[in-house]
C-alpha cells in the first residue's frame, strides 16, 4: 500500500510540473507612457532659423491645429527642437515654431533657474513640449552659458556670443546712425555744426569743422555722421508735421574735446553747412524686446522709407504715422495692407453696351494683406519699424493695422 502511495505522489508531482512548463509565463504587462507627439523634425543643421523657415516654404498640409481652443497655432512642420545659431533673430526662431511669430510670448516658458531667462544665445537648444495640452518652448542652455549638466572643467577659448536680438541689429544701427527721417526730439537733442575751418562750405575729406550742443562731452576718437535737416514730413491723415527728412552729408571724427569740439571729416558726400546735425555712427539700440500684437486697435499709414526707395521689401526701415500715444511700443507687430481700389461695376445686369460707367454702381475692393511690420523705436506721433515679411510690393501710404 505504501508503494502505491509513493507511485501516486510521483505521478502528481510530474503532472503539476508538466502543466506549469506547458503554460506560457504569466508576466505582468509593464505600462509605458505614451510617446509625446512629435511636431515635425529636429532642426540641427547649419541653417539659421529664418533660413529653415524659408526652406520649408508654404506647406500643402494645413497648419497644425492648436490642442486647446484659444491656443496659438503651430507652424507647419514645426520641429520638436532647434539649436540656436549665430545670425539668428528671435523673429526667425519664432517663425520656425509658430504660424504667427508675434504670439511668441504665449508659448515662451521662462526658466527662472537660468541667468537672464528671457535671453537666448547661440548654442542654446529650444524644445517644443506640451504642458496641459498647450504648446510651450523650453530653453536648454548651451555649454557656453554654463549648462548645469557639464561636469568637467573647460577653458573657454572665445568670449560668450551676444544674445540673439529680435530683429537684425546691423540694419537698425545703420538707419539710426544715418537716419533718413528725424523726429523733433532727435533734432532738438543732437549736437550741431557751429562753424567750419576757413569758412569752407563744401567739406572734403580731411577738412575741419567745429560742433556744439553735446549732451555729454565729446570724446576724442568718437565718430559722427553729419545729417542735414530737410523738408517737413506730414501725417497723411491730418497734415500735421510729425518729423523731417534727414539728408546724409558725410562723417567725421572728434580730434579735440571742448566747447566747441573739433572734428576732422573722414567722408564727404555733399556740402556741410552751419546748423547741420551730428549723430553717432555707432549707436546702442536696445533690441531685446519681444514681438507681440498691439494692445489696442491701431490703424495708420506708412509715411516714409529709408534710402528713398519706392518699392519696399524685407528688412527695409519704414516710418509710420502712429506712435507712443497710440499704444505702440518696441516689439509691436502690425500687418501691412494695400488699400483696395474703387471701381465701377459695369457687368451687372441691365447694362449692355455704351456709356455704362455713368450709371454703374461703385464697388470698393477689399484691402489685401501684403506684409508684416515690427516697431523698434517710438515717438509721440510716429514710429520707426522694420518690414519683417513682404508678400508683394509695399509702398508709401500703404496701411498698417492689427495683425
Number of helical segments? Answer: 6
User: Low-confidence parts, pLDDT < 50 over ≥5 residues?
Assistant: 11-40, 58-69, 147-160
Provide the structure class: alpha+beta
How many distinct folded domains? 3
Overall spatial form: flat
Please describe the biggest sheet, giving its number of strands, its sense, and whether it closes into a barrel: 7 strands, antiparallel
Q: Based on DSSP secondary structure assignment, what is the total number of beta strands?
A: 18
The H-and-E topology, N to C, reads as HHEHHEEHEHEEEEEEEEEEEEEE
Helix-residue proportion: 10-25%
Q: How much of the residues is beta strand, in percent?
A: 25-35%
Q: What would you call the quaternary organization? A: single chain
Radius of gyration: 33 Å
Distance between the termini: 99 Å
Average pLDDT value? Answer: 78
Features:
single chain; 403 residues; alpha+beta; Thrombin, subunit H; 3 domains; 7-stranded antiparallel β-sheet; 6-stranded antiparallel barrel; 6 helices; 18 strands; flat
Question: What's a quick, concise take on this entry?
Answer:
The chain has 403 residues and is α+β, with helices and mostly antiparallel strands. The chain folds into three domains: 49-145, no CATH class; 170-280, no CATH class; 299-401, Thrombin, subunit H, CATH 2.40.10. It has helices at residues 2-22, 49-56, 90-97, 104-107, 169-177, 184-189; strands at 81-83, 125-131, 134-140, 181-182, 192-196, 208-212, 223-234, 241-256, 261-268, 277-280, 299-305, 317-320, 333-338, 342-345, 361-364, 368-378, 383-390, 399-401.
